[in-house]
């Protein structure tokens, strides 16, 4: 069954086998914003036209020093053939002053003109080489990052929660097929990979085998199952947190290898029902789930002075104790006192995205 499903979504060509320069339109690494090649060419072309016009004005002002009487068009023509090093020889400087001006002013401008045009081509090529090298270095060094599959509403909310919890944008990789959606992720400083996460090669170039966690948040449940299967096969030790719309599909994701499954439709339904009888409770729940302001549910290690204490008596409002990967609610017997190595699930005060 699994092999048949994977066969349907197998790539015709492995992206992971392509050289880094072939992935320039697939992987985008965050960095300083740089102007595009076309804008660079247009700007340099403007500089070149400015030099051309400047020489034409200089020649026209000193037109008496040339081999024939010049109109401004003649001066512009002389400027063009001179700066482009064509040099037909039909118009030449004949007086000492005109030749001196050509030596001191026109010749340096001619050199700058050539360097400007050649430099434009080199700059465009260098930019591509720089990005290719950047991708190569990133693929070699990426470790313990978090991959978010799908940058829709759920994916964006997951990223916001990660950023609010202190995860650096460069340690988050977003996979999506929509380039316009990925542009929003790039604006936040996230690494992006364009492609379908149901394909193993797309997951490979995102570094899934070295990822700490993978958030599976596509719009369709069947896609979530396929992605989870692929991720678990490629990254047996990664934590997989998946979102599913319908509760009857929860067991499929768990069987596919998801460590945690969030049922989005049922959660929204419960909040809608609760809002009809206790809207203030829903308001507080939304506050707890919002990472930007107000209150937030967080997890932290216990302090040395808290070992052996009852979590109900700590300064923080503790909701549960995490021990050896298991969560014990505050009212459970296991949570009567905290032990070395425990972590506390508590409510923290958040202001402007900082705790």
Kindly describe this structure.
- It comes from Corynebacterium occultum.
- Pfam families: Ion_trans_2, TrkA_N.
- It is found in: Cell membrane.
- This protein has helices at 2-8, 37-61, 72-83, 96-141, 153-164, 179-187, 200-205, 221-234, 250-256, 264-277, 279-289, and strands at 27-28, 146-149, 172-176, 191-194, 213-216, 239-244, 260-263, 294-301, 317-323, 326-329, 343-350.
- The chain is α/β, with parallel strands linked by helices and 355 residues long.
- It folds into three domains: 2-30 and 142-266, Rossmann fold (3-Layer(aba) Sandwich); 37-139, Helix Hairpins; 292-350, Regulator of K+ conductance, C-terminal domain (Alpha-Beta Plaits), CATH 3.30.70.1450.
- Helix 2 (37-61) packs across helix 3 (72-83), helix 2 runs antiparallel to helix 4 and helix 10 packs antiparallel against helix 11.
- The two termini are 47 Å apart.
- The mean pLDDT is 82.
